[in-house]
C-alpha cells in the first residue's frame, strides 16, 4: 500500500512539473486530487484497513496529497507569471506610433483658406474680429461715406430686412439689411478700441447676384490698420507679404487707381499671375497658349483697398480718431475668389454644392 502511495505521488509530481499551461495544470489537479482520484479515495477508505495499518497508510497518503497540492500551487504560480509575461508582450502597444486610422472628414476649402488668411495676418500682428451679419444702414452705408443716392443702397442691390419689432433699434436706425460687405466692422472696431488698431474681420456678406463667379452669400475678409503716419507704402508692404504668403514667394503686386466711398485714395490690388508666372503665357513663354487664369494679362485682381477716408474716422465720433492725428488703410478681399484663384476652382457654385468629389480633394 505504501508503495502504491509513493508511486502515485511520484507520477503526480512528474506530471505537474511537466505541465505547461494553467489549464493543463487544472486537469492534473482533478485527475490526481479530485473526488474520483485514487489518492484521495485511499485516504477516505483508511478506516476500512486493519487498525495496525491505518496510522501509517493514513499518514503517508496525507503527506502525498499535501505534497502534490503544494507542487501544483508552486507550478501554478510559475505558469501564471510566464503566461502574464507572454500576454504583456503580445498586448504591447507603442504609444509613440502615429495613428493608423483613415482620416475622417476634413475642413471645407473655404474654411481652410479663411484660416490660412487669418494665420498670415496674425503673423503680421493683426487681431481677428467678427461682426454682425444683419447691419444697420448707418454702419453699412452712412458711416462709410456713401452718398444718399449711392447705387449700392438700391432695393435691387441689397437685401433689406422688413422692419421688425423684434430687432433692437440701433441709434434710432430701424432699417436693417444683410451686410453687403465686412466694411461696417471698420467703424464698429474703432468705436470699441483705441488706436493703434490692426484688425481683420472674416465673415459672410450678402448681395443679390448669382452666376459662376457670384453667389448671393459669400465671404470677405476686411482689414483695417490705424496708427500715426500710415501711408500707401504701408498698405503696399502689408499686402505684398500677404499676396506672397498666399500665392507664392515669387509674386509681385501692383496698385490700380479705383473708387470706394470710404477710402481715399482707393486702389485695387493685382497680384502677378501664379499660373503663368506673370508672363501671360502658359509654360511662362511667348508662343505658348494664352494663360486662361489672367487672360494673358499677367495680373489678377485680388482685392480692393485704400487709405481710410477722413469722413469714416469722423463717423466714429471719437476724438481718438481725429483724422489730423491718425491715418490708416483698409482692404477687403473675397475668400471665395482667393480660393478659386489659388486652387483653380472654375465655378464658385461648386464650393456650395457639397459634392464629395470636390470636397475630398481638399480634405
Ligand atoms: N468693401 C469693399 C467691397 O466690397 C472692399 C473694400 C474694403 C475696399 C475696404 C476698400 C477698403 O467690396
Task: Provide an overview of this structure.
The chain is an alpha+beta fold and 363 residues long. The chain folds into two domains: 2-90, no CATH class; 109-362, Bira Bifunctional Protein, Domain 2 (BirA Bifunctional Protein, domain 2). It contains eleven helices and ten strands. The chain has helices at residues 2-18, 22-33, 38-44, 51-90, 109-123, 137-140, 184-192, 232-247, 310-315, 335-343, 356-359, and strands spanning 127-128, 134-136, 160-161, 176-178, 197-206, 217-227, 253-260, 263-272, 299-308, 327-334. A seven-stranded mixed sheet has the order 1-5-6-10-9-8-7, sandwiched between helices. Strand 7 and strand 8 form a beta hairpin. Helix 1 packs parallel to helix 4 and helix 3 (38-44) runs antiparallel to helix 4 (51-90). The protein is elongated. The two termini are 83 Å apart. The site of phenylalanine (PHE) has 10 residues, from strand 9 and strand 10.
Question: Quick recap of the structure?
Answer:
With 363 residues, the chain is an alpha+beta fold.
Amino acid at each position: 500500500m505504501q508503495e502504491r502511495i509513493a508511486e502515485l505521488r511520484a507520477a503526480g509530481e512528474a506530471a505537474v512539473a511537466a505541465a505547461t499551461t494553467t489549464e493543463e495544470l487544472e486537469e492534473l489537479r482533478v485527475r490526481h486530487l479530485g473526488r474520483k482520484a485514487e489518492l484521495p479515495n485511499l485516504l477516505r477508505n483508511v478506516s476500512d484497513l486493519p487498525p495496525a495499518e491505518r496510522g501509517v497508510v493514513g499518514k503517508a497518503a496525507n503527506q502525498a496529497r499535501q505534497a502534490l497540492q503544494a507542487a501544483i500551487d508552486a507550478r501554478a504560480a510559475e505558469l501564471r507569471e510566464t503566461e502574464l509575461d507572454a500576454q504583456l508582450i503580445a498586448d504591447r502597444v507603442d504609444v509613440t506610433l502615429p495613428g493608423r486610422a483613415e482620416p475622417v472628414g476634413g475642413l471645407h476649402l473655404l474654411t481652410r483658406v479663411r484660416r490660412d488668411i487669418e494665420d498670415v495676418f496674425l503673423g503680421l500682428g493683426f487681431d481677428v474680429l467678427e461682426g454682425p451679419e444683419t447691419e444697420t444702414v448707418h454702419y453699412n452705408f452712412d458711416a462709410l461715406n456713401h452718398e444718399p443716392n449711392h447705387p449700392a443702397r438700391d432695393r435691387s442691390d441689397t437685401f433689406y430686412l422688413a422692419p421688425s419689432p423684434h430687432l433692437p433699434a440701433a441709434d434710432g436706425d430701424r432699417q436693417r439689411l444683410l451686410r453687403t460687405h465686412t466694411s461696417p466692422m471698420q467703424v464698429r472696431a474703432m468705436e470699441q478700441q483705441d488706436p493703434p488698431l490692426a484688425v481683420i474681420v472674416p465673415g459672410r456678406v450678402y448681395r443679390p447676384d448669382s452666376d459662376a463667379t457670384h453667389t448671393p452669400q459669400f465671404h470677405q475678409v476686411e482689414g483695417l490698420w490705424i496708427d500715426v503716419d500710415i501711408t500707401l507704402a504701408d498698405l503696399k508692404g502689408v499686402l505684398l507679404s500677404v499676396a506672397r504668403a498666399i500665392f507664392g514667394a515669387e509674386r509681385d503686386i501692383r496698385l490700380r487707381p479705383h473708387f470706394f466711398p470710404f477710402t481715399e485714395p482707393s486702389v485695387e490690388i493685382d497680384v502677378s499671375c501664379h499660373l503663368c508666372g506673370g508672363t501671360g503665357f502658359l509654360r511662362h513663354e511667348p508662343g505658348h497658349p494664352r494663360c486662361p487664369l489672367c487672360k494673358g494679362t499677367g495680373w489678377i485682381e485680388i482685392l480692393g483697398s485704400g487709405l481710410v477716408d477722413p469722413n469714416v474716422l469722423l463717423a466714429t465720433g471719437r476724438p481718438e480718431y481725429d483724422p489730423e492725428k491718425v491715418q490708416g488703410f483698409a482692404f477687403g478681399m473675397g475668400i471665395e475668389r482667393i480660393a478659386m484663384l489659388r486652387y483653380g476652382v472654375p465655378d464658385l457654385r461648386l464650393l456650395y454644392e457639397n459634392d464629395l468629389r470636390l470636397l475630398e480633394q481638399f480634405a
